[in-house]
Amino acid sequence: MDIKGYFDKRNFFFLVCGVVAIFMFYVPLKELTKFSLHSMFYSHICLIPLVSAFFMFTERKAIFSDLKYSYRGGISLLIIGAILYFLGRKLHGQLNQNDYSSLMTFAGIIFLNGSFLLCYGARAFRAAIFPLLFLIFMVPIPVFLMDRIIHVLLIGSAAATDLLFKLTGIPYIREGFTFHLPGISIEIAKVCSGIRSSLALFITMVIAGHLFLQTGWKTVILVLAVFPITVFKNGIRIVTITLLATYVDEKFLTNSFLHHSGGFLFFIPSLVLLGLILWWLRRTEVQG
Questions:
Q1: Are 161 and 130 in a shared domain?
Q2: Are residue 170 and residue 96 in the same domain, yes or no?
Q3: Could you report the per-residue pLDDT of 95-106, keeping only the tens digit for each?
Q4: Domain closes at, from 100, 120, 140
């Protein structure tokens, strides 16, 4: 058999494995898609496979330059994916929709990664590690972990708001996540935690680090910078809306575009700041 035929056979086998994976996880993935379209946390999920496919295509020469079956590693991941799948089926009635979708989607991604490793080998798997692992962003964050992330963001946002109120010199009293100002009180709720913009910035910086940085620890610095910038952005937004409601019109707090849909106005400066950090990190690599 010539090389082309061997390559086509390999692709066909991977395609079969992919079809099997889709057949196994069709229902939970369909539910996941519906869930992501109506969730403020997971509106990005439908874009993740497209981004992964883009990187797989643009890096195809490096990925598929040396192909070899990897039976031990590939079959091991296939078995793990299958076990997680049947575990999810067994626990379906005990899990909420978010955690059930999380487990089943994770099982599907493990199975797909195992199929790739089995068909194309360890070297190709290492070359494709970014687009393959990037699929993990399709997995909804389990509720217990999401609650902790939101709580940390609330603590950071409250601290940033507290600092900014002190800088303005406006008298206020703070009680946890609640701030009492003259004639008005505000509470930093979960919807004000910035979790949606944090996820968007986090994923964007992961992509940017892969595209523009060569050093792993500098990519980590770029990704970690998302947290302080996000909480500071939240603090600016909260203080801005509160001051407008206090001194201009209370509707800025109760019924305004800036409060309900104006997040992108504060998201753009955050993206610019992270872009400057990326530029500096890349510059240090070039100089080095």
A1: no
A2: no
A3: 888 888 889 889
A4: 140
* Cβ atoms of 266 and 198 closer than 8 Å: no
- Of 91, 125, 140, the domain-final residue: 140
Helix (H) or strand (E) holding 185: strand 184-187
Transcribe 86-115 into DSSP letters: HHHHHTGGGS-HHHHHHHHHHHHHHHHHHH
DSSP-assigned beta bridge partners for residue 175:
178
Q: How far is CA 176 from CA 27, 160, 230, 233, in A?
A: 42, 13, 19, 19
- Give me the phi and psi of 202, to 5 degrees please: -60, -50
Domain that holds residue 281: 145-287
Cβ-contact 201, 232 below 8 angstroms: no
Max avg pLDDT among 40-49, 87-96, 251-260: 87-96
Number of domains comprising the chain: 2
DSSP assignment letter at 187: E
Q: Mention every residue, 6+ apart, whose C-beta is less than 8 A from residue 189.
A: 177
* Cβ atoms of 96 and 31 closer than 8 Å: no
Q: Measured between alpha carbons, how far is residue 260 from residues 248, 250, 257 in Å?
A: 17, 14, 5
Average pLDDT score over residue span 129-133: 95
Question: pLDDT tens for residues 191-224?
Answer: 777 788 889 899 999 999 999 998 889 999 999 9
Query: If we measure between CA atoms, which residue out of 156, 201, 184 comes closest to residue 249?
Result: 184
Q: What is the pLDDT of residue 3?
A: 46
